[in-house]
Amino acid sequence: MRPISIVHWMTAVADRGRSLLELAPPAAGQRGSLEGLCRDLMARRGEATATAVAREIALAWSQTPDERRTEFFATLAAEFNPDPEAVAAAAAAYAQAPGPKTQIALFRAAEPPRQELLRRINYAPGATAALVDMRAALVDRLAERPELAAVDADFEHLFSSWFNRGFLEIRAISWDTPASILEKLIRYEAVHEIKGWADLRRRLEHDRRCFAFFHPAMPDEPLVFVEVALVNEISRDIHTILTAPVDGEADRRAKTAIFYSISNCQKGLRGISFGSFLIKQVVDELQRAVPTLRHFVTLSPIPGFTRWLRTPSPDEEPWLAELRAALPGEPTPEALATLKKPLTKACARYLLSARGPGRPLDPVARFHLGNGAQLRQLNWLADLSAKGIAQSAGMMVNYAYDLDSIERNHERLFDQGEIAAARPVRALADQKL
Amino acid sequence: MRPISIVHWMTAVADRGRSLLELAPPAAGQRGSLEGLCRDLMARRGEATATAVAREIALAWSQTPDERRTEFFATLAAEFNPDPEAVAAAAAAYAQAPGPKTQIALFRAAEPPRQELLRRINYAPGATAALVDMRAALVDRLAERPELAAVDADFEHLFSSWFNRGFLEIRAISWDTPASILEKLIRYEAVHEIKGWADLRRRLEHDRRCFAFFHPAMPDEPLVFVEVALVNEISRDIHTILTAPVDGEADRRAKTAIFYSISNCQKGLRGISFGSFLIKQVVDELQRAVPTLRHFVTLSPIPGFTRWLRTPSPDEEPWLAELRAALPGEPTPEALATLKKPLTKACARYLLSARGPGRPLDPVARFHLGNGAQLRQLNWLADLSAKGIAQSAGMMVNYAYDLDSIERNHERLFDQGEIAAARPVRALADQKL
Amino acid sequence: MRPISIVHWMTAVADRGRSLLELAPPAAGQRGSLEGLCRDLMARRGEATATAVAREIALAWSQTPDERRTEFFATLAAEFNPDPEAVAAAAAAYAQAPGPKTQIALFRAAEPPRQELLRRINYAPGATAALVDMRAALVDRLAERPELAAVDADFEHLFSSWFNRGFLEIRAISWDTPASILEKLIRYEAVHEIKGWADLRRRLEHDRRCFAFFHPAMPDEPLVFVEVALVNEISRDIHTILTAPVDGEADRRAKTAIFYSISNCQKGLRGISFGSFLIKQVVDELQRAVPTLRHFVTLSPIPGFTRWLRTPSPDEEPWLAELRAALPGEPTPEALATLKKPLTKACARYLLSARGPGRPLDPVARFHLGNGAQLRQLNWLADLSAKGIAQSAGMMVNYAYDLDSIERNHERLFDQGEIAAARPVRALADQKL
Amino acid sequence: MRPISIVHWMTAVADRGRSLLELAPPAAGQRGSLEGLCRDLMARRGEATATAVAREIALAWSQTPDERRTEFFATLAAEFNPDPEAVAAAAAAYAQAPGPKTQIALFRAAEPPRQELLRRINYAPGATAALVDMRAALVDRLAERPELAAVDADFEHLFSSWFNRGFLEIRAISWDTPASILEKLIRYEAVHEIKGWADLRRRLEHDRRCFAFFHPAMPDEPLVFVEVALVNEISRDIHTILTAPVDGEADRRAKTAIFYSISNCQKGLRGISFGSFLIKQVVDELQRAVPTLRHFVTLSPIPGFTRWLRTPSPDEEPWLAELRAALPGEPTPEALATLKKPLTKACARYLLSARGPGRPLDPVARFHLGNGAQLRQLNWLADLSAKGIAQSAGMMVNYAYDLDSIERNHERLFDQGEIAAARPVRALADQKL
Fold this sequence. Notes:
Largest sheet of chain A: 5 strands, mixed
Shape of chain A: globular
Oligomer: homotetramer
Strand content of chain A: 5-15%
Order of helices and strands of chain A: EHHHHHHHHHEHHEEHHEHEHHHHHEHEHH
Helix content of chain A: 40-55%
Strand order of the largest sheet of chain A: 2-3-4-5-6
């Protein structure tokens, strides 16, 4: 009962439909341009032809040069919108007589036809990956082209339905994983660069673990992955993790699992959050596989610290302004050493108090604290790479996932805005200089 | 790289969240009732708690007695609707200044919160199956409770996204298939009852084929399956197919594949069409596996014929009224024999001309002709079962799938309302009595 | 990295070689007869041709009628033997100058060419199964045709090498197992007949387990399987096991695993023992899967009891003769009831003292005690089927597998001839009448 | 019905047995030494203990330093031999009265107990791999220690039974293969070194293929693998193959499959030939997957040519002696260029006429011609690596596998000693200088 590759077959259908296309006149618009194909697809009723057109779109997309893509997105934004008058009428009818008929009519009028277009493109073999790629290109343009926001909202809405967590599959990644997947980890690692196959192999040794989420429609594309080190004490710096000799007994005695890197792989899935779910599931897997584990802790960067520190704020305390003045533009470890006390105090403050719109300002803090983790420990001289020194004065932080308190932490953060932090971190924030 | 069962893990998460639930006060509404749980779920922000509540809902649903379920659906219909005023305001704002912001706001206001509720229920392990079951119960009530139509529309909308054909997997079903799946074929066969394991085994022999669609989130539940006989001539009656001795050479010489049964398994997926896609893919698979095949033809019932015949129509021709009068209430094969000529003429007319709203009136004809098949042949004394005699005076029909013309047939039917039929069938409709 | 079916390919090679065969003259003997094909195969050097001839042999064997097979075995016994003079010379040379050269020469001279013949037949696709079938037919003839013993010894020698336990694969059998395998369990069950699919399904429910050994070269053929019931108390009769309602909580609370049936499937593998290994592995699997289990106990027949009881022995005690006289030819449960005391005493004596050549006389006792199990408990009115009453006066026995003592029990049995038995069983043997 | 890892379980059994071992006195000899463990294993009857001892042996072997291993092999050679007197007696009895009893007794007496020892070691988890490793070490010592030949014969005899081709599994190796397997290809490549992951990846691109044989008991260890290039013309040099740009259309239009490297991976399986079988199966696989292929041709080294050329022979023709004299010790391509005519003539002569004991002298020629391939073409300046120039004056040769003639070629070579060669190669051998 081996499943037959539906992708194989869809390609065949699309091939057949394709020859039909060459004979028949396009149903609408002109073919040849991406825009014309999209109009054509919306006008199709025949299944094979629709699949063929959808496939043309996926192919044409992959061959469209970057500069033309903006134009295509502009068309998507300008056309395929709900008809303002129709939707106003439907809304009025619904307001006047709320009921199934008016409600259904309203939803039909209000749902952008673009969503139907994207669903139809998804008929073609491999089209899910093409659509994710499409949105990745769209996301790059959003800042400059705010008029594309509605297009982006439609992508996000569909993706959050298709990539529903119940449809995801977690896989343990090891040295027995196909090279074609491993190669992608090397490419997608976003936190601590993987420097070739030997480095990768070290990260998959006996005392390391790696897990990733996949979706059935993109079986070769990791969505997000996390790298874990099995150690005894809570790691305070990243160099030790990346270069330690292999501990052959780790699976029998490790007490601590360090989540030292978590990378989202698909820019096109921005806003669809998997990481939180992945970390929690990995905690669970590890607990079963390595029963000696007691602590599940990240070793995380603090990407926004120095930027925050270097930005004056009107009502700040004087010592902060002094610290800012004292901090060299490109500090060396030696220069930092003289500022250890104020820097750790400032960093603890940053993590505990700096807020964006209602949430922690630091993006990594936002992610882990939002997941219900606790701010456990601040580590001095923990990442001496150029990037580490530049963004966080060489500091890193541990967030702890304690399964018994993550729900409570999570709810407190969202309900009362209260950050879960260990006493020593609070003490750092209040230390006397 | 064996995938770890996400279902296993979700159950664990849900278990953990469940104990939290018992300690914590419900976020909204009262727990205990399905309705209360749904309100609670919409108010949750914590991931594990939400998953736990979703699981409670799936469990509670399975334990809710039939009579209480109507009430639950009524609540779903009464609450979780778009706010009429808010949507009217959003539509007005959009009509006045169409743009990304107003459009996104409009879609948010117009999408029934019910859709979000269903998406959240789907967080729980196995919840997709529970939701499909829920809709099956809903579908049963639609005729009597038209006010549930909007609830149904939301289910259908989400299912058509989740069960997107690109996410489906086709599997060949054989005697090597797990008994737990085969057992379901016995249960779900809707056209020609499977009378136990021996009958099933006959249908999976060397000269028979069976294929089914599955969805990754319901891996043990066939969505639709088709049974095929590999024969030489186009079969004219169903008895021969069900009882013929095994042809051990079929895969080396069969010229014709007869699709003699196609069954939708999930009432809860009504309106999400897979059958058309399945048949076409099976044609393709068979062509590759049995290269001698030249014809792909159904042997199909005509479920609506006698009902149509027995319903007088104002402007009908006199011979039809005569035939109606002559047809016994419960005809025997012998009684039918005397009426062969007018019955075949009437049946051909029914298939070629009787229309529902723009489409063939007979549901099976609607399905196959809508797929682009051609009405090939009408078979006299083809199904002498009680059901066969009652619904179609013992006649059956062959629809032919010719890959080179299905697109054209399909488009002609939808564009010009033209039914593809072989000359002999047209001749029957015009025969002199 | 999906394995390509070597069977598929071997068939292709054999097909190609086959056409060569039709052109080329046979290398030796006449083709057409099994014997001729065997002589031909021994004379071949070309690989494809040899594979083709091997395949011819497998095919020809399957078409050879039963009466001709004896003749074929006779040829195998008469030809393909070591050359007496050559082997005598080689043995003399070895005795005179033991060393690598003479030893290798000796082994070559002494190994029956039949073993090489069987190895070559095994080149063909699926030939392992054909050879196992061949030996099954041979085993049936051994009693009447003692001259075939050497042929049988060669089969057994090769099979014990090919079916080395390290090459076997254990599989859990469940309702998710392919029907084509389940069907074979129904056929092969040797202890308590499986009465159709419903009966089988009961034996695979939540509170039952089934495991089987398979060999990679015969992936669809179970070699041996065991059926297990998960219960609380040690079961005293088989009827309860076969008919009890399903215990849906068994995997969370069962204390005892009852091995109530173990069946060897392949007569052709007689003498190659898998059962012992299977039971021990299953104990291990169960311990991991159902941690509440404390006891691993069989519920076993006593197939040789009444035969032994009905056979007078010169120096037996008087009560035994009396019991024999009192026992009706075809006893009813009621008749047995009056003899309970002497029957249980006799049965305990039989199990504890009756010996064949150095080992327990009862074949089932021999198997389990030889595995290191302990004779735990004798059960009165435990199997009231006709067979149960006839062979063991309705009694059954429990053997217990206690992992901490099976080695010791095993070694004591073989070294000192001491049978491990629980005190109550010894007490029964010594009870006063 | 997922198979449960028998290796996992055997390890568990062995662990349990292991603790028993620590309590119980050794059954024979002293434990601690490999020799003592082997004697102990032969004396065991209990299954778990035997498995435990077998595992000890596998472990002890892996920790035995190289110098101690010779001693161990010497013990294997000195003990575990057939008893000369017993075997002489058995042979005499058989010679006097040939029959099943005497024959079985003879075989038992003549089979070295060493074979039983090896079979028992194979009880332990992973022991097959350990035994293969053991023989690899043995093979290294054979030249210096001829007294180990009988030990080696026993290994080879058992391996040829266990690694019977019917038990092997062919797998296509691609970039989707686990990295842990690919890593081994890099290590085992014996013909044209793989220079890291990028080089390997090139060899697995769209226009390349790779296949390997595996055995179920060593699922992660390739036994032999072959690398294939899909090209149009027959390749004349290896550099082009290793460095050509990827041909993305190869699978739709390639006419020729070049087998440019075939490597045996396991020295311990010397004498068990898989390569011939592999090549033929790969030819078959390729034919199905790439229907445009017409030619299946190797590009092979001529490892013995210059050695042969540099060795004077008493009755050789004068031009050969002249060539030898003219050939520089370490020739440059330029120096070779001046000798092209006599070198190609000599090489053709070498391939066509130089014989070892009845067979082609060149080992690669022996392999391919023995498989039934034809000597197709001699290539000048085909391998300019240092090794290529040194061993074959930079020449390489193509052997062609034509499925319609390989059997005939094979049989002619073995029956009449006739080498299949294309006319141009024969012409080279006869060219006038």
